[in-house]
Structure formats: C-alpha cells, structure tokens
Amino acid sequence: MKVVLLAESFLPHMNGVTHSLLQALRHLERRGHEALVIAPRSGPIDEPLFGARTVLLPSMPLPSYPDVRVTLASVPRLASVIRDFGADVMHLASPFVLGWRGLAAAEAVGIPTIAVYQTDIPSYAERYGVPGAAPALTRHLGRLHRRATLTLAPSSSALDRLGGLGVDSLRLWRRGVDTERFAPSRRSEAWRRDVAPGGEVVVGYVGRLAAEKQVEDLRAIADLDGTRLVIIGDGPSRPALERMLPAARFTGFLGGDALAEAMASIDVFVHPGESETFCQTIQEALASGVPVVATGRGGPLDLVQNSVNGWLYRPGDLEELRERVRDLTGDDAKRRAFGVEARRAVAGRGWDRLGDELIGHYGEARRLHSAGRSAVRPVEHPARPKAAATPVAASEWAQDGGAASVPTAAPRWRRYVAVGDSLTEGLCDTSRMPEGEFRGWADRLAMLLALSSPAERVDYANLAVRSRKVADVVDRQVPIAAALDADLVTVLVGGNDLVGRRADARRLADRLGSGIKALRATGCDVLVVTAFMPRRPAARLFEARFAAFNTRLREVAHEHGAMLLDVDAHPELVERPRWSEDRVHLNAAGHRGLAYAAARVLGVPDAVELGALELAMHDADESPAQELGDLEWLRRHAVPWALRRLAGRTAGDGRSPKREAITPVAVQARQNTRSRRGPVSR
Question: What is the mean pLDDT of the chain?
C-alpha cells in the first residue's frame, strides 16, 4: 500500500503531531508499505524517516509562534504530487490549512482520506488572545472532518467534541507509548541529585512552553515545602516563565533516552493544559511509573484515574491543583502505590499494536471509499460490560482500541432503580411537569435508557426523598432496590450529611460503600455519582469535607467494581447557570446535563441524539429563570429552611418516594416529536 502523510508541521520541529507521524512511518516500513510525507519546509532534518520520501513545501512562520509554519500550496500542485506517487490513501495529520487543500487534492485524484484529529485549534486561538476567531475556526474544523472519509480521534473527549460538530465517520485511535524506553528502571539518582541537591521531592512538567499548555499555572505549586519544580521543554513562553518561576529548574528540550531518564526520575508529574486532545507526555509519565496530577478536561480524562494512578483537578482551580500535588508529595507510600498502578495502566499500549490499528483504518477507508460514503457508519463509545470489575469515568468505556471500530449495542439494563436525596428526587426540575411535581436527572436517564431500547421494556423506580442522608439510603432505600430485583442502581447522596455539624467525610463514604457492596452482591450494576455543591462563596466552608468524601468514595467505587460519574472532572455540569433559584438544587438544564453525563458513563449508544430527542419531547419551550436577589432569596428559601432546622424538621418529613413501585417508562409521541422538529443529527 502507498500512503501519503500530509502534516501541518514537521521536523525539525518536534511536537506530538510530529512524534506520531514518525511512529507511523516506522511502522509502515516494518510492514512493507511505501510512504510519502508532504509537509512545510522549516529547516534541516536529522531524524531518520524510515525509507519515506518527502516533498517539503515553502512555508512561512507565524509571527507570534515561529515553530508553526503556514504553507499555501495549491490544490493542483498537491494533486500532482499524489498522482505521481500513485497513492492509495492519504493520512492527514492534524489537518487545518494545508490539510484542507490536501483533502481537496485527494478528492480530485480519487483516493480516500484519513483525518487524524490531534490539535484543538479553536482553543489555541483563545489562548493566543483571539477568542473571536474560535467560532469560525470551530466551523472549519467540523467541515473538514465531515468531509474526510474517516476521522481518527485520540480520546473519548475528542470523540464527543467532533460528534457535537456533526462528524459521524469517527473511530477511536489512541497513541502508543514506548514502554521499553519509558520505564521505572530509567530512574537516575544522579539526575535527581543534580536537580534537587537537597533531596527534595521532584515535581515535574514535560512539554512545550507555550500559551496553550498553561505552564504559568504551575506558580500555584512552585513554593510547596520540600519540593523542587523542574520544567522540561522549550518554546516561546520560556523567558516569561523563567521570570515568573525563578526557583524552578528549566532543563530545556530533552529527547530520546535523556527524556526517558528525566521522566522516570520525577516523583510527581503535573500537566495543567486544558486543550489537550490526548496528552502523550502523561502517558509517558505513567509508563515511567510516575503518578500524575492533571486538569480534568480533554485527553487526561482517559489516562488519569482518580485515587488510582493520580488526580484530576477542576479546570482552573489552582487551589485544588496545589492540594492534589501536596497530597502526593507529602505521602511517599501513596506515591509508590500510585506509581505501580500508573505503569499497569499503559500495559499493552505499544506502538506496534497502534500501528497495526492505523493500517487497519487505512484499509477500512479504502473499502468505504470504494463502496461510497453512504456506507460510513457512526460510532459511539462501547457499552460497558455488565458487572465490570472496576469503575471507570465517563470517558473510559472506549479504551480498547479494537472495540471502537464496531457499532455498539444498547445497554441491557431493564430494571433501573434510583436512590438518593432531593437531587435524585428531581427538586426544581419542573420542565413540562404539573404543579408540585418534578422530573430530575434520574427520570431523564430512565427515559434515555428506554429510548435506546425501543424494542424492549425498561422498568424504573425512584426511591429518593428530599433531605435524606447516607444512613437513610443504606438502611432503607438500598434493601428496597435489591428487593425490586434491580439490574442497575444509581447512587447520589451525601450533601445533607456533609453540611451538618461535625460530619466525618471518610466515615460517611465508608458507610455508603457498605450499601454499594450490598447492591453489587446481588449482581446488579451500580453507578455512583460524586457529591457536589454550587460554586458560591458560602460553599467554601464545606469544600474540604466534600473533597475528602469524594476522594474516599472514588476508592470505594473502585473496591466494589461500581461505575463512577466524577462530577469534579466535569465542572461544566455544575456551572452557575445550571442551578435553580434556591441556589442548592439543579434546574432543568442542570438535571439534563447530569443525565446525559450518566448516559455516557453507561455507554448508552447515540446519547447525543437521544438527548436531543428527549429535549424536544420535554424541554423545547423552556426558558431560564432569572436569578433572585439576595433579599428575596433569603425570604423565599433561606429563612424557611432555617426555621425548619430550628424546629427539628426537614423538608422530607412524612414524604414517600415519588415512584416507589417499579413500572415501565412511558415513551410517548416519539415519532410525532421527530417530525415536528426535523431529524436529529450529529
């Protein structure tokens, strides 16, 4: 097979795109295929190209980022190169400007295209001070990937991003890692003495020093006692960062064995970038047996498991970043345990396997092109197998690279029971409901499960009651759920306990864990949702309790093989517009977002489309309520709550569950709704 690989950037500039391209060239040579690289010319190339030919085009650097080159090659010129080579398929590496022309050239020649999504260009624009360009760049990104025969995305967050832009010909293709080069055995005490002569715990960052990496956020950890911050890499932001972080050690660019030695010699790896579609350096840190602290957005969601091989912190929350790093730098035993799990997490991710997957995608693109684009099928995240052994965040169902290339079946849960407090009862979600009744995220999730299985009945019970606490759920609701023969139970509770006096967060999580264990013993699946609060100044009083509760809850979920929706890793779920006027319950938009996130964790096929349909059926005319002023809020909500507390009463006294019996979910007017609003598409 003859493969043209077209890249927006190439050697001598080394980045994630170039690294992946070199690995692809190496594997193509090993498997006996021919390769041609088309890329901007930006300097002498000293790296081996594994037998590949090159066509290097004239280019010019971006004024603010000289390592990025702009090439304005014409479509006829590119088509002539492709035709002369006799290419069978074109690989577009992180396409945008040159990639758009390459795509048109491939169409002119009549060969299929594989677009490999690696760079979130619109987010980069925002970081470089041109946020107004982001919408237009996003539209272009969607048009380009919809036009390609296939698009390969490196992470589940990237699949979601592109799916939201209407790209349906998606496949998951992760990145490989050299587990021989990046290994714990590379740890060097001599290197450590050089960078931390006082024996400090070494906290390290590896990557480009550029605006999109947000390296300046490391100022939050630069002064942690007993630590030394080491920054490995180079880029346009280095002079400013050296002024900002005078105590840090800057090594400059490292590659090959020197990088592997440095990576293994770090004690804690930190990556603050929020625009990563994958983040290869995190994977290299894990392979080196180094625990990771990273932002809970984008590619890191697939790589870092909270309380297993590292920590994810809320994007932009530098206080939490500091506390997560402090947690690991201050506990040698935890670092060692996380390091063992880090290495285990990347087992089987060698480049040989990923290279064979890539060649398989080339073959699929050729078959689809021969059959016509109508043959392309959309791909969702694989559904989670029943009673899986470990909890996984919403982004992790598709980690098996092979599984992402086949369509998924609908989940097989037929008896769903929700347990919890007012959040699961659905308070303040009044969308299309009679006066005094509420929907809520669990009702919405039940609807999504039913919509995903139109040929089979889904039964549902909701045992949640407002004001209930962990003990109520464990002692009363869990036994009822088991007696109802549930095959899926969702658990969200703890907030009412944690805002009480002298709450022991870890003990509460352990108590809830006993209920989760009891449910799992019946053979049913359990989805645990971490506790959360509105982000308001008053909530800071309880932040430490919620953090401790959720930390232990993640461990409990892992111990008992429960699924986990970690709200801390998805801060968009609890943004201010998602709260109702009482400031303590979600509004309809908040409940809807939580339901869709839960559906993704469960692997519900076509969750995006089903969510749009559910929105049409129930929330089409919904308009957001205006926020109450402080005095009116006190009168309507705070004072009545305080009076109940003084009287020793709660809002849930004397109340029964709204759906105590398990009954079929009614899915009415499905077709009528579709025809009124038009087809639901990605």
Answer: 84
